[in-house]
Fold these 3 entries.
Entry 1:
Amino acid sequence: MILVEGIISGLLVGCVYALIGVGMSIIYGVMRVVNFAHGDFLVFSSFLAYWLHTRLQLDPIASLLIVVPVSFLFGILLYYLVIPRLQKSDDPESASFLAFFGISLMLTYSMNQLFGATPRGIDYPYEALFSASTQVGPLFLSTSRIISSLVAIAVISVLILFLFKTHYGKAIRAVIQNSNAAKILGINTKKVSAISFAIGLVLVSVAGVLITLVFPSISSKLGVNYTTIAFVVIVLGGLRQPLGALLGGIVFGLAESISSLYVPMGYSTVITFGLLILVVMLKPEGLLSGIKVRRKLADQTIQPSRTASANK
């Protein structure tokens, strides 16, 4: 039962990790920008949810109504202030790494000044509606983790519909695949990049709000940790595959949760990074790299059959 609870807990937390990873994956895939401040944006949104809870008595889910539009507008503003200048440099990836490293330090020290270095946390806010733990047969699961995973799944579902059913979503996928070809086809890559950057910040901000339900405390020093998790997740799923980051988040959450049952927490981190090294050695393009190959092979087999039938 302990192992089963660990697996389910890993799946629940993995949904939130998937949000962290897919946000960074979209930003990197569209703009080739290394957002080293990704985790700091997450922690900042966590503190914003904490502030809204303590001052306005908003629970974390309700605070999303404020956090999401603020993050989107901030993402648009930050894009036009920073990204176009970085893309004009000789090495945009290195320039973006340095620029966002500076932004990371700025956010860290700003949060230190605003909220202090003491870890903060939000008490379980749904005690009037649900108990802190939910019994599913013989299993006892954290209600707050269940709620956070359901919200994460809902956000991921909306993201998938956006990417595959809307004009801007298809444009984002086209730019990720080949930005030069997208330009030739008449796609406004600057506008798509601005929207993509804002969406990436929205996704990590939603994850930051949900983190306040998943873990008992938040601290201004945790930004680097979540940035590292985002890097691991997108490498596991594939650097230029936003949907692969969803799988990477689930795999990372499972590895972290299951390993923590058998080894101390410090060693569980070693195991998760060992998993990353193993995946990079066996599948450098990510866990979904084989799916691309199968699709190409399927296309190669379908195309001749269609040609033959047409000739007949």
Note: The longest strand covers residues 133-136.
Entry 2:
Amino acid sequence: MTGRLTHFDETGAARMVDVSEKAVTHRTAIARGAVRMNPETLALVAEGRAKKGDVLAVARLAGIMGAKRTADLVPLCHPLALTKVTVDLRVDQESPRVLIEAEVRTSGQTGVEMEALTAVSVAALTVYDMLKAADKAMVIEDIRLAFKDGGKSGRYEAA
């Protein structure tokens, strides 16, 4: 880590980073997270009995839309032309949780970590929204960057 925060200028004012001189490279980011819930609530998802419909399908689309709108939500993010966004959700009966993974790709001058994290976050919020009538105690947890590749800083893989 360089210790230099690039979203601040010399005076400490927030700024959007100038990426105009950076090389265009292929960039990938994978983020993960989960929504923990009561086993009875998870059964609604697994059996397709949630009153609002197919929880996983709606959350998948919401996550994709979230990735595409990251620059509208996070003030200093650059708007990016994304070339791939996948959001996978699966039921883990043992935890009991819905596990979420998003992969985002682009060829550009800045990374897609925030887009992957936003995709997971929006998918998790959608799961919560669709099931909150059944379980208000759900917990959105462990949202994190799992992998990134491309750009000056190269490859990162979480332990």
Note: The longest helix spans residues 113-131.
Entry 3:
Amino acid sequence: MESISFTLQDGLAHIQLQRPDRLNAVSLTMLSELQELFERLGKEQAVTGVLLAGSGGNFSAGADLNEIRHFTPLEAIAFAEQGQKLCSMIEGFPRPVLVAVSGYALGAGLELALSCDYILADTTAQFAFRELSYGVLPAFGGTQRLPRLVGKAKAKEMIFTGQLLGAEEALRIGLINQLFAPEEMLVKVKGQLQQICSYGLLSLQLGKEVIDTGYEINLAAACKMERDAFAVCFSTDDQKEGMDAFMEKRQPRFTGK
């Protein structure tokens, strides 16, 4: 792979954007490689969680303008559709996907981060949508995911002004969940992901699906969906093992069945 790197250890997939000389700008090659990798990881039962991060002190400074600035409208549609497909794939990935942000998370880079389950960052992180200053708009779902996370008015402010948002402000408005010192972030995020993935993976997968799907429908229907997912858990070995382990005061040995 030209623009990303990938390692798998103890079930956790660590994906890094690897274009540090371009501030990890999102290229057409990067989109294709990420899509291919997430498709493959989704079929691998050994993968229990994914960590997405940047390299060279930045997450991603956005789309590679050298590639897209001479696009025709039809080429722009194809680019947006490819980016939206990838972000939907990340958002719907059946296992937890956390993103660790250092430095810039701008434009398309921020859109990739927004498609993950939640964002963690270090104190160097800066967030912005600068597309209006280039005469365009966010195109990978940013105009839709950002308001759902921080509210419509704050999303409009970020997109209209293009102003850089520091890590402390991002934490205050709920754009990111937790903030770490740069030297400890990756260790802390990996530890958190390992803890999450030590639980019953079937119930974790169902929980993610219920939260994501229920958020878009009315409360009564969503609660019925939650009820049914809860009942499904009682057909699994993991439910029996988890409750037996609690009663017997021991660590559960989940099998994902």
Note: The mean pLDDT is 96.
